[in-house]
Amino acid sequence: MRIAIVGSGPAGLSAAARAAALGLSHVLLEKTDHLSDTIYKYQKGKHVMATPSQLVLRSDFAFDAGKREAILGTWNDQAAAQGVNVAYKSEVKAIEGTGEAIPGSVQKIVVRNRDGSSETREKQRFAPPYRITLTNGQAIIADSVILAIGTQGNPNLLRCPGGDLPHVQYQLDDPAEYNDEHIFVIGGGDAGIENALGLAADEAQGNIVSLINRGAEFSTAKGANVQALLAAGAAGRVAILTESSPAKVEPGFITVDTRDGEVRLPCDRIIARMGSAPPRGFVEECGIEFTSGDRLAFPKLSPVFETTAPGIFVIGALAGYPLIKHCMNQGHDVVEFINGNTSLKPADEPILAAKFKDLPGQRSVDEWLEFLRTNISILEGLSPLQMREFMLDSEARAYRQGDVIFERNDPGSSLFAIAQGQALVEVRSDAPSISVPIESGSIFGEVGLISGRRRGATVRAGADSIMVEVSRTAALKLMSSVPAAKRAVTRISTERQLLQMFGAGLTPADLADVLDTAEILTVKAGEFIIREGEEGDDIFVIRVGSMIVEKIVGGKPVFLSYLPAGSYVGEMALIAGGRRTASVKATVKSEVIRLKGEAFRALMDAKPALLERARRDMAARQDINAFVESRKDSFSTVVDMYSQTAKFLVDNGIGEATDVLLIDEHLCVGCDNCEKACADSHEGLSRLDREAGKTYAHLHVPTSCRHCEHPHCMADCPPNAIHRGPDGEVFIDDSCIGCGNCQRNCPYGVIRMDSVPPKKPGLLSWMLFGSGPGPGEPSKTWRYKNAEPGVEKPKKAIKCDMCSGIEGGPACVRACPTGAAIRVSPEDFLGIARLERITGEGR
């Protein structure tokens, strides 16, 4: 037989159809009793999308967007009409070459036994033809084998206590089967979103549906699915828990680890749709090598889908292409290649050719793809096929020496990768000639990608260069699907954070050994990274979130200081020796970089300036410890009050704030000048509510934006209308479409949806003639009476922007006649200086 095709999904069906059309002897092996088991197992009534829309379909089978049942019916009819040779209930057990031994092809394979143990053995590869042995004992001999088996049979399992309980499932067949249940869907990809929407579609079913997504965004899902999910969330049909993960499963309950700590919720059923991994053991037994040892790595493939086992080809999801249209095109093309059509170009060739047409040099699409892949570190782990898909969402650009790539304070969250040439980062706005080079192979722009901040520096091309601009969506997708790319981005961003923090004349080469020991840890809200009295000398750098430092005084934990992202801790035990002198815990869900003490000590020994910097930081912290210890008896009440005040502020969002409005109730006279000034500075709409919010002792936190370090509101903004300004302010631009996602995502209730009121008469007109509503936000009655007839203004998201662009700073603070209102960064407010003022020691 000429071709044996394993798996009748979209890729395998398309390959079989092409073989039938060319008159090639073939067999399509399907282990079930029906075609396309993956789509067959889609939930009933699922709408199947035909993306990418710009990609031409060149399969012998028809495919367009539609219901699962209609698509399967069409394919069944076409398989019969076109003479596709299908062998049902034919599960493949092994594939082995029957020709001569391939010199130098002995392969080491890790075999996992049923008891959990594993062993490594060597396997000699043999040339085709191949013997395909089925589980029923039947054997088939074929010149070529096409593996189109996908990955759905090897789902990622729920790995937490209770994850193996019977109410945890990995498939949803018919959403209508479930009624009056608390159902949690885990996974923010297309499958998880579609399952959640299906379960919540009919309110009469009475299901309470929640979706848990590990990240803040849905980077791997189709845009239409994300919008449908957000609409369902806005309507209250689906509860969306982002930046969360399951911590424990019990009968009737699930414990979820959220940004703000663990929460135990009623749960009758869990549907885990957390992706899947290639069936590596079976594939390696066939003599096929993978691109790396990562569990999610894909097989090594040539541009024509051939593996390292000659005559065995891999297409579809197993090749890293999960979209149906991609899979079907590959099925068509691989049979053409096997049949000798070496001139055939992939269906996406014209799209990619257009992307590369303005680059210098005469290279084909394949040559450009390989050039970019081999010259950019974060792309080295991609196969040629994955590179094609990646470049569909990215842009390759040529720059002349001196060209500006982006300027300081420009909005932007894309990532840039240098394939050839050099980038120069102007680190000082007042001295453009002082720049730091970034060489070929590296990346820049990762700060905007990770934090959403505006560009922190102007970057120019230091030489004639070729670079790839990777959109935020494409970068997040790359990092989630290619472990090697995530490691490369993480290492580079970690290196630059350490260089920025520690300075002291350090170079990337100096940090190499320290980075080799670096480990990124996710820390739950309230979880300790250091405990007082324990041994240890590792250094912790706060990458995302914030920490507080506590010390036990008189049997009680006393708040010492607040550490925002960009701080580090742990140097005292490393330099002075001994046990930890204080405890450090997360205020919100955070990320820290743990650096091994031994490696950091060697770096300090080699760099005296770094050691001196660390000693200064240690001395400052020792002063705080000594201050608290010396006053633990005489000022215990005040110290306790300060600790409780600090805890109150952290509990009310200051733990992730960069700027927060506080009101001293001892000084506030309730004049509401702050609200009126805010409204008059912002088109008649106030951005704060003075009376709302919580109070502890005399300290009040009104409802006003905290300008979080990693803003919740930025997640899932369709027009990308939310940005961070040069002074840290988070603001919404005029491209807002009023979808309300930011309002729903904000945990502090500081965003409102409203339309801009009619223009008011000037203040003098009001004072002299009584014209208009007066200072502050006009009443709804006045707005209604003065609205333009027949014109309903659209609502947009409105929030505090820290009066960006208004001379004098925040209007709320300037308008306060008693000085009760202040805007502060938490690290300035939560410090020992404040404690000294409270106790009277600082006067």
TrEMBL record:
Which keywords does this chain's UniProt record carry?
Answer: 4Fe-4S, Electron transport, Iron, Iron-sulfur, Metal-binding, Transport
InterPro entries for the chain: 4Fe4S_Fe-S-bd, 4Fe4S_Fe_S_CS, cNMP-bd_CS, cNMP-bd_dom, cNMP-bd_dom_sf, FAD/NAD-bd_sf, FAD/NAD-binding_dom, RmlC-like_jellyroll
Q: Which residues form the 4Fe-4S ferredoxin-type domain?
A: 659-691, 728-756, 794-827
Give an example GO molecular function.
Answer: metal ion binding
Q: Which residues form the Cyclic nucleotide-binding domain?
A: 378-496, 502-621
Source superkingdom: Bacteria
One matching Pfam family: cNMP_binding
What is the official name of this protein in its record? Cyclic nucleotide-binding domain-containing protein
Q: Which organism is it from?
A: Sphingobium algorifonticola
